[in-house]
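Hey, quick one: can you model this chain's 3D structure?
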Amino acid sequence: MDALGPFEPRPRVAVALSGGSDSLALALLLDRWARDRGGSVLALTVDHALRPESAAEARQVGRWMEARAIPHRILRWEGPKPATGIQEAARAARYALLEQACREEGILHLALGHQADDQAETVAIRQARDSGPDGLAGMAPIRELRHVRLLRPLLGVRRAALRTVCEKFGQPWVDDPSNLSDRYARGRLRLSGRVDTDHAAMVPDAARDRAGREGEIARLLARHAAFYPEGWVELGRAALADADPGIAEGLLTRLVLAVGGGTYRPRRERVRGLLGRMRADVTTSGTLGRCLVDATAGGWRVMREPGGSARQPRSPRMGKWSGTGVSCCAAKGLRVPPSARWGTRVGARCGKSFKLLGPRTCPRRSAARCRQYGGATWSLPYPI
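Sure thing. Here's the predicted structure for all 384 residues.
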């Protein structure tokens, strides 16, 4: 844990506890580590409600923690589940629930039970998908989210060793059958037995290389990119002219993740395709990662495309447009027509007028459709 610090004098750490041997061993070891420092551990179990027995398993994990005087919370994924992409949706829901719980508890550190075998599988899967050199770096031991630090202290420990830890503590565990399901890439890989430690052995060198690339990307962005608070970015043409292909791929990927709000990187072949067209013809525009990439006189403008918009106002009485800075009570009847351009003044029944702020040359196709909320018609000329 020292390598993942610094920590508070009396550290409080949350543990994502599935009930499997990896996360249970982590919870037991972290509990001892925290108590030795006058701190504490909070175990968080996410019930995805995808299997009939999941609720009972979560309660059993709670009883195990209660017997060891470790505080425990169950976080349930409520609502309808998607028919496709269930693993990706479950992962996104899990991290959202865990981060929110840490925020509610005032905890800055969330420990995850990913271990050396998981790391080798991750590298093998990314290698098979041609995710590029960054994929070979595997999972990072520390990752900063908006409200919490994700910590992976077990990346150098094998699964068998963690099961031995549980056995020494006299701690049973739960095996999730989906971990060996041939419906999922990781399950198929485990069943095939094609993963070995060679995949994990390449991680340290790849991680050092990734850190070097990220530093170069940061320097290029600082020199050639302008980030606007309305949620769009102007990228100078020299940014791509000065970069080798791998750096340029990483730069474009990071821009669309930042602007588009995506969790996962766009596919490498799509990044390469758009990048190749941009370098061959500086007037090229396109879409990538829920973003519009539009050519300008000096380079490109990156902004969220309408298809990725979240159009529902957060409050039933308020509407807000990212990129305009305009919000108005729905009861006032503010309406922005789909054809509105930046700089247009729009009126409301309340008698006030509002000016749409943002890039004056924003293309009309970025206007989203009108929707009815709270008795008013809302149109998003620049999507959230």
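One thing worth noting: The chain is about 35% helix and 20% strand.
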